[in-house]
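Hi U.,

Before I forget, here's the chain from the pilot set. I'm dumping it here mostly so it's searchable later in email.
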Amino acid sequence: MTMVGKRKKKTATPVKKTAKKIKIEAPPPRDETPSGDGEVVLAIRMAERECGQKGIRGGVKNWVIQCPYCDSEYSDLKAHIKLKHKGKEYHGLKTQCPHCDKQVVDIINHIRHVHEKVKRFKCEECEAIFVNNSVLRTHVNNVHQSVTTECPHCDLTLKMHNLEGHIKKVHQNQRDSFKCEAGCDKVYTSRSDMQRHVLRVHLKCKTKCEFCGKEFSPDGLPKHIKTVHQGIYRVYCKYCKKGFDRTQALEWHTTSQHSGIYFQCNIPSLETEEKFCKKRQFTECGIKEHIQKHLAKDYKVLCQKCGTEIYSCYQQEHNARYHSTSAFPCDFQGCDVLITRREELKAHALESHATLMDYLEWCDLCNKPCLDKQKHFDNLHKGLNDQEFTVLYRITIGLMCEEDGCKFFGMHKAAINRHNKLVHSKPTITECELCNKVTNNLNKHMIDNHTEGKTFSCSHCDTKFQTRVQLMRHQRVHNRKREECEICHNQVIHLRQHMDQVHGNVRNFECDVEECSQKFFTRLAKTRHMMHVHEGMRYKCGICGQEVVSIRSHMRFVHLKEKKHECPECGKKFQTFSHMKTHLTRVHLGMKDKCLECGKMVQDLKSHSLFVHKNGKNFPCDQCDKRFTTMCQLKDHIRLKHMRSLKPEKTELVEPLKPEETILVEKSE
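Structure:
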């Protein structure tokens, strides 16, 4: 049996502790100047720990803050004060931001969220990332859950983050006013709206999208990124899951692409008996506003059975609802079934109009079909008296596009024509048999040009019209409010658009084709460019058969030879204003531009650069493959090379008997 002794302890050799050298920049002097509330403003800087130092995290560069009670710097100042300066105050210490002029308490989070834009909170429903958890919760409640609540004062349904502002502005009448800092007369209820106005209107600030490179205003860029690149929208179509930013856009999409259902006004006409208005609208809000215009012209009568005071146009509907004495037709256009009670209409609709009822809901209060039951109640029943206001409409189907594979529904024929022109590049023009002019609206052309008896004259310019509607449409031009431009002193209707297009040359609409770099002032100009340049859409002239971009311009310039623009100096007339302006500047004013390449003073710098320096040849010969710089060179080429066969044969001169006479004799073979 062996005895096991105690293990001897190893004596550790003493090691001399050597101080590690730390290479760090000298801290800046502490700012002892008190802030506005009497506190000392601390300093912050970026420091790097090489070998090791207490209070500074190793491995990476860190923000370090100078302690107000000693000369040390620490990345966690709060822990340092608790440990080394017990009893000292560490709450509310402000630090000067190195990026901006602000003095904030939580400087690290301020730099991370405001200047470095660090986003670590990702939404589980989509790909959006946010700065903090509070913004993430707001995003989930507003976009994915749509958490709403009712206002305790007016029972209005609002989103949670809008309730406080609604109560403050609407019920307590506390509205802040912020005037524009740039000096204009605009007043806003929030500072952020005012600042966005200054950036967008006065500073013309544009921000470039990091995904596609397009430029937007500062408040328009987040919306662009959210919808185009992240695919986040406010509302979605329940049939095809397509997203939209506005509820009105979703309603138009559902009507025009899926259901084709419109609301037709069923108010009896006051002028003639047994005729109805039949005006169509996309939504119930639109039909409600339209019917309110009818009621403004109507009068009230007393019901002979119950003595209730109602509008005259509601008599048939009132009898059907409360007295059941008269039958009324079905609420679906084209159905001739007569119904005596409103309660029987639902069973009839589910049986006879089952296809349309797949897109509709049923209101039990008024026993009528509707698109959305909740919106129908809020718009037509909430706070309204049925005897004072009752929406009378019928469900109708729009016109469907005749192109194969297209499911577009239009409200009327004009909508179908516009759809064919924009989507299918299908021109809808006809030729007038009386004057041979080509027009896209033959009825309007016949009324304006070939109908006698224009009795409605304008009081401003003495122009006469065939109908009162045309006169009212024309008078809008005179009644519009005009503003004076401070630069050119012209009276314009849209001052902002005038400043952007005339003086600012702002072109916000860029062509969608990657190879094309064209930009345009308006969305309509961009659409026309896409149709005529990239899609090759042309209109055929009914007179000469030539395919042109604009029939109206072709008729004016080619066939009618119109020259309405007269030079104020010499009286010469031109077809366009730009031609007259060019003539005035070159001929009468003698204005010339200096070429940057050769230094010459030329009248047309663009043509000079194209023909002289770039050797541009824009005039091709239609009989061979040659091209020429000018039209004169092309004409000389055609005369010398291609028109020899039209010349007479060679002749020789014979000496005349008289010196004054010269006889041409054909050369005999």
